[in-house]
């Protein structure tokens, strides 16, 4: 418990056998109560290693649902366990678990209900080896989103986030895509409900074992981001309200 708040770390896993142990070993168990690993039909030893590490809550998909589908299972399990704060941490060791206490404290102390660990604040992305085309796309999409959504985030695309249970109970994340665009949709839903989001600087690492989508899927994701932004804008001006905002 962290100041009487139950904290759950969720690990959306897919073929994470090479990095899971290192990620798990750096989780601060002095404040973390539950670790939940959701395996999206991995073809390696992710489940075997998770059991060996002693991860208590393992959810195994019988087929590959996708990154968004994985997160839905993560959050459903965390809420089932009555967690007060839910932290999504990729088990590919691209993001450091050492920030868990810092981002949790922002929610625990009622400063903000949602926290994003940003790779763009500071020089985390560049120093960590983010491909140049991804960095440029990140900056362009973020600028576009901030204008249409009337926000000031440094990025919308980090996969390292912390949510209060109240926020997840308030939004219909089950209506979101099972693909990578889920990350953007959930932020749009959060803003639509009137919640504010904090950001903290986060170093990142790009290496062979770290998960990353290819150029083709990146382009698809980019167009998906633009669509979500326009849907949010149309909802705000009361022209059209998509089902994810209901």
TrEMBL record:
Example of a GO MF term: transferase activity
Matching Pfam families: Glycos_transf_2
InterPro entries from the UniProt entry: Glyco_trans_2-like, Glycosyltransferase_2, Nucleotide-diphossugar_trans
Coiled-coil features, chain-numbered ranges: none
Keyword match Transport: no
This protein's UniProt keywords: Transferase
The keyword Transferase is annotated on this UniProt entry: yes
Residues covered by the Glycosyltransferase 2-like domain: 9-169
Name by which UniProt lists this protein: Glycosyltransferase involved in cell wall bisynthesis
Organism: Psychroflexus sediminis
Taxonomic placement: Bacteria, Pseudomonadati, Bacteroidota, Flavobacteriia, Flavobacteriales
């Amino acid at each position: 418990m962290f100041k009487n708040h139950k904290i759950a770390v969720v690990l959306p896993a897919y073929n994470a056998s090479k990095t899971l142990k290192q990620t798990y070993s750096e989780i601060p168990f002095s404040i973390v109560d539950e670790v939940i690993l959701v395996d999206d039909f991995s073809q390696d030893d992710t489940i075997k290693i998770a059991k060996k590490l002693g991860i208590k809550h393992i959810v195994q998909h019988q087929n590959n649902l996708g990154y968004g589908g994985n997160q839905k299972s993560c959050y459903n399990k965390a809420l089932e366990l009555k967690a007060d704060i839910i932290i999504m941490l990729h088990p590919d060791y691209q993001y450091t678990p050492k920030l868990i206490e810092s981002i949790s404290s922002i929610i625990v102390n009622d400063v903000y209900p949602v926290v994003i660990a940003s790779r763009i604040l500071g020089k985390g992305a560049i120093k960590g080896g983010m491909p140049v085309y991804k960095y440029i796309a990140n900056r362009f999409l973020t600028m576009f989103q901030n204008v249409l959504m009337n926000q000031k985030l440094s990025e919308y695309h980090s996969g390292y986030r912390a949510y209060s249970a109240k926020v997840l109970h308030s939004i219909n994340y089950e209506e979101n895509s099972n693909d990578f665009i889920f990350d953007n949709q959930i932020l749009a839903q959060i803003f639509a409900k009137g919640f504010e989001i904090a950001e903290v600087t986060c170093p990142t690492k790009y290496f062979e074992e770290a998960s990353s989508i290819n150029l083709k899927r990146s382009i698809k994701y980019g167009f998906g981001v633009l669509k979500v932004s326009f849907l949010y804008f149309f909802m705000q001006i009361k022209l059209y309200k998509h089902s994810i905002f209901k």
